[in-house]
Specification:
single chain; 265 residues; alpha+beta; 2 domains; 5-stranded mixed beta sheet; 3-stranded antiparallel beta sheet; 8 strands; disordered N terminus
Length: 265
């Protein structure tokens, strides 16, 4: 606990650690233990195969309370090497509070969803600045390959919304863009599990993947968001990953689709 308290005092960057052979590479500084603890929790919860293949760096930071909790970022244009960023103020892995454990488990599973859907087996890197629809859906990492999770997800749920979302995404004024995205969510509330899911197809997939892991199979209604949860059941390998994660997280929430808001701050 003292280790975590020390980290809370260090506003801004705490450090970046290389990961080799699934272990933190020591920098010789006092925060090595903190990094080892956080990587140990990540490695305990998330399926190890993809972590071993693609996660080569861990960054710890804090930007204050209730801002970004974590991120998954590509380190090069090959989509082969990724860094996971953790805000140690918002993600207290030493906490025994049930709601906080569910909250940070949600975040880690969400970030794993990005790794799962944006790695080099799923996305083809490109220098294209504008989307060529003949090549598929264009992400910041490249084109979603035919048959990829993201390509299938976009085809199933975003075809009639991409034009409207593209216009919003092109807005350069960030405040105006966020207002438009908020309205986009409100106008399509039954399509999205959270407001963050409406930010982009990539975020929608990652959020839907998270609810797939943390929820039971949904009884379908007219609500598209429930169909998004069930979307992943068509992939045997994703069912296996779901079962693996549910066996490692400390708290498996009840009725998460309906109880989600009790777990967030």
């Amino acid at each position: 606990m003292l280790l975590f308290s020390y980290a809370l005092q260090a506003q801004g960057e705490i450090g970046v650690w290389e990961i080799k052979n699934s272990k933190i590479v020591s920098t010789g500084h006092s925060d090595d233990r903190l990094a080892s603890d956080y990587w140990g929790e990540i490695f305990r919860i998330l399926p190890n195969d993809l972590l071993r293949k693609h996660v080569t760096s861990l960054r710890l930071f804090t930007d204050g309370k209730a801002n970004d909790m974590a991120g998954m970022n590509q380190l090069d244009e090959t989509n082969a090497n990724w860094q996971i960023d953790i805000d140690v103020t918002d993600m207290d892995i030493y906490s025994e509070d049930k709601n906080h454990i569910v909250d940070y488990s949600h975040t880690l599973i969400h970030e794993f969803g990005h790794l799962l859907s944006l790695n080099k087996t799923q996305i083809s890197p490109t220098n294209d600045e504008l989307e060529d629809s003949d090549k598929g859906y264009l992400t910041a990492e490249g084109y979603a390959l035919k048959g990829s999770y993201l390509s299938e997800f976009v085809a199933a749920f975003w075809v009639d919304k991409l034009y409207e979302w593209d216009k919003i995404d092109a807005i350069r004024n960030e405040n105006r863009k966020q207002r438009k995205l908020s309205q986009f969510y409100v106008n399509n509330k039954t399509d999205f599990l959270t407001d963050y899911a409406a930010e982009a197809p990539e975020e929608d997939l990652a959020e839907s993947w998270t609810f797939f892991v943390l929820s039971d199979k949904q009884k379908l209604t007219d609500e598209i968001k429930l169909k998004k949860v069930n979307f992943f059941y068509q992939f045997k390998e994703l069912i296996e990953l779901r079962n693996e994660i549910r066996g490692t997280i400390k708290v498996v929430p009840d009725n998460y689709v309906t109880s989600f808001f009790q777990y967030i701050k």
